């Protein structure tokens, strides 16, 4: 097994380990976060209905400037505002294969400050 294929399989294994515990339903949908090298995206997903309730991304936004941690804090505020508009107050946080540290933590803290409960 090459280094890249084992790295990809480790990422998928970590994602599956998190998703085995975190499920979204109508009362408490899942807040899924994806971080690439340049951009951050977040979705609020109802897994029982297989629908995306709200989504936000830093891709194509002019006000999202600065470091990725600053961008993730702005995105956390934005996704929380969109969730409040859709009358979603509680979510299950899905960090994917990433550790709850740095950018993920900045997004989560900003969403909590806007009133979203995890």
């Amino acid at each position: 097994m090459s280094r890249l294929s084992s790295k990809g399989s480790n990422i998928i294994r970590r994602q599956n380990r998190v998703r085995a515990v975190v499920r979204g339903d109508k009362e408490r949908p899942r807040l899924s976060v994806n971080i690439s090298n340049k951009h951050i995206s977040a979705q609020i997903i109802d897994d029982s209905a297989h629908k995306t309730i709200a989504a936000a991304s830093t891709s194509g936004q002019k006000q999202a400037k600065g470091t990725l941690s600053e961008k993730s804090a702005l995105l956390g505020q934005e996704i929380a505002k969109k969730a409040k508009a859709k009358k979603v107050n509680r979510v299950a946080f899905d960090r994917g294969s990433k550790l709850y540290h740095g950018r993920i933590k900045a997004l989560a803290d900003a969403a909590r400050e806007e009133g979203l409960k995890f």
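The longest strand covers residues 40-46. The helical segments are 3-19, 68-85, 103-113.
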